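sry for the spam today, last one i promise. struct tokens for design, 77 residues
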């Protein structure tokens, strides 16, 4: 039996797998900012960790955010 890691980054990535993707024209900005806030404020991730987590989540976005845009959202959170 594999024990689940309690590292905040692992927990955050698991959380993001449950979050719907950001879709342009369907409040995609709001969805992305909420995710950034959850990572920074809720999970207490540092900027680099939050960006790592958001990269995987961002692959489902339509269209995906640029790295600079993700970083802006994280810093705004």
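last one done:
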């Amino acid at each position: 039996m594999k024990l689940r890691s309690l590292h905040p980054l692992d927990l955050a990535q698991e959380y993001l797998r449950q979050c719907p993707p950001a879709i342009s024209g369907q409040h995609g900005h709001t969805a992305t900012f909420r995710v950034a806030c959850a990572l920074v404020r809720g999970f207490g991730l540092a900027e680099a960790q939050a960006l790592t987590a958001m990269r995987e989540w961002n692959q489902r976005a339509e269209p995906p955010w640029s790295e600079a845009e993700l970083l802006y959202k994280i810093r705004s959170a």
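The chain has a mean pLDDT of 93. ok im logging off now
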